[in-house]
From TrEMBL:
Record InterPro entries: PIF1_helicase
Phylogenetic lineage: Eukaryota, Metazoa, Spiralia, Gnathifera, Rotifera
Protein name: Uncharacterized protein
C-alpha cells in the first residue's frame, strides 16, 4: 500500500468544505485507519455509501 502524507494546512480546507455527513464518514474512516495502523487484526472496513451525483 502506498503511503501518502498531507499537512494539516493542506487538509483543513478540504475538511471545511465537507458537510456534516461527509465529515462523519471521513473521521470514521480515519479512526479505522489509525486502529489498523497499530493493530493489523482490526476487522476490515466495510462501508456502503449511496446517493445522487457527487456522493
Amino acid at each position: 500500500m502506498k503511503q501518502t502524507y498531507s499537512t494539516t494546512n493542506e487538509i483543513r480546507p478540504l475538511l471545511d468544505s465537507m458537510n456534516h455527513e461527509q465529515q462523519e464518514i471521513f473521521y470514521y474512516v480515519r479512526e479505522w485507519c489509525m486502529k489498523r495502523l497499530h493493530n493489523p487484526d482490526v476487522e476490515p472496513l466495510r462501508l456502503f455509501i449511496t446517493g445522487g451525483a457527487g456522493t
